[in-house]
Amino acid sequence: MTTLGRRACLVAMVALPAACARRPRCRRCGMVLDPRGRFHAELRGPGDAREGFDTPKCALTSLLSRSPDPARALWVTGYYGGALVPAADVLFAVGSDVLGPMGHDLVPVERARAAAFGRDHGAKQLLPLEQITRELAEGMLGICDTGRDGAVTPRARRSTRSRRRTTRGARHHRSSAARS
Ligand SMILES: [Zn+2]
Question: Where are the domains of the chain?
Fold first, then answer.
């Protein structure tokens, strides 16, 4: 290898992990965030503060594991519109056949179309934000050992990795569900 080639290689070895590390990740499960993802969620406030999550269940678990804070608001991606909307504008579908990137989720559906979604996708419940409990959200996440502030723990990270293996299947299932 030429000196130049070796130097380029070294630069790449140093630069690549740094670039990966800079990509924002879900604080709850460690997944890389896609702000345009169909299941992206955010906790907004106070002020311009934004905290992103890859799924509604991660955002809800984080929100509900802290003391209520009126300065922080949950925004979720509406199933039909595909845009971030205040959580008050949606109902969360429980037990539907629509899977998120991490499997079963609390799917945010625009209120006007929630009943139709429930019929089409077999939702067992359609709940407003105020009826989502921490237990329900954590049950979706499949982890119980959350930190007091909702931060992810080593055991939670391990279960995240094992769930990641099913992501491809879940994505396929979701896209076929979206077509129906
Ligand atoms: Zn997450």
Answer: 25-179
